[in-house]
Amino acid sequence: MNDALTIVNKTAPVMPVAQFKSLDHAKACAELFAEAGVPAVEVTLRHTDAWQMVKLCRDLMPNARIGVGTVLNRRQMLRAVDEADFVISPGFSRELSMLAHKTLTTYIPGVATATEIMAAMAEEHRVFKLYPAEAIGGVTLLKSLAGPFPDAVFCPTGGISQANYHDYLALPNVHCVGGSWIVPSEEALAKDRKGYLAMLKSLYQRSL
Question: Which residue from 101, 121, 94 is spatially nearest to 2, judged by alpha carbons?
Fold first, then answer.
């Protein structure tokens, strides 16, 4: 719905799934992402300071779309409406879908089965986060889903790494993947910031 398709297409090939460990970590990564031209990032709500991390990314990455991930309930959704550019859930919730429609919020629901895809499509969604991708069938599952759901677009997340993400991107129904491996730890960033910057620029060079 809304511009979910634009989000995943613009973010290709990889949507950074950021589980920052601290505010300093978030700040350092946001500065790195801004310098590299990362077009969007999903900040997960898995830390007590997650909302402050979202604000840091919005402040330090003015040219990027900042999303909130791991949104599970109405309270989180309503806050995300005000503080983020898009919302991602690990599963599908009709209540969250209705809130997204009502507030004109870009919402990418998570799905793991054909039944969930059908339920989400009935609510006018066609862009989905397949989660947890590797654990539920990965590339094989996505190939199987292409037949009955030719209009569905996926951003698979969960178990995807530098070693296998190309296998996903080779599928026509996958427009980008979600990955945490491109979010360096504080230690890795301190050791090799230049290396991470070069890697990120290489990933996103076609959209820079």
Answer: 101
Structure tokens at 145: 């889903």
pLDDT(128) > 50: yes
Of 12, 59, 60, 18, the C-alpha closest to 39 is: 12
Please identify which of the residues 129, 143, 186, 187 carries the catalytic annotation.
129
Say what the pLDDT of residue 2 is. 55
Tens-place pLDDT, residues 36-93: 999 999 999 999 999 999 999 999 999 999 999 999 999 999 999 999 999 999 999 9
In this prediction, residue 205 carries a pLDDT of 78
Average pLDDT, the chain: 96
CATH number assigned to the domain with residue range 4-203, chosen from the 4 options 2.60.40.10, 1.10.10.10, 3.20.20.70, 3.30.300.30: 3.20.20.70
Residue whose entry in the numeric block shows the structure tokens 């991107």: 169
| CA–CA distance, 201 with 203 (Å, rounded to integer) | 5
CA distance 158 to 109: 14
Residue boundaries of the structural domains of the chain: 4-203
Which candidate in 27, 35, 42, 134 is catalytic? 42
Check: CB of residue 133 under 8 Å from CB of residue 168.
Answer: yes
Q: Among this protein's residues, is 116 annotated catalytic?
A: no
Query: Catalytic: 186?
Result: no
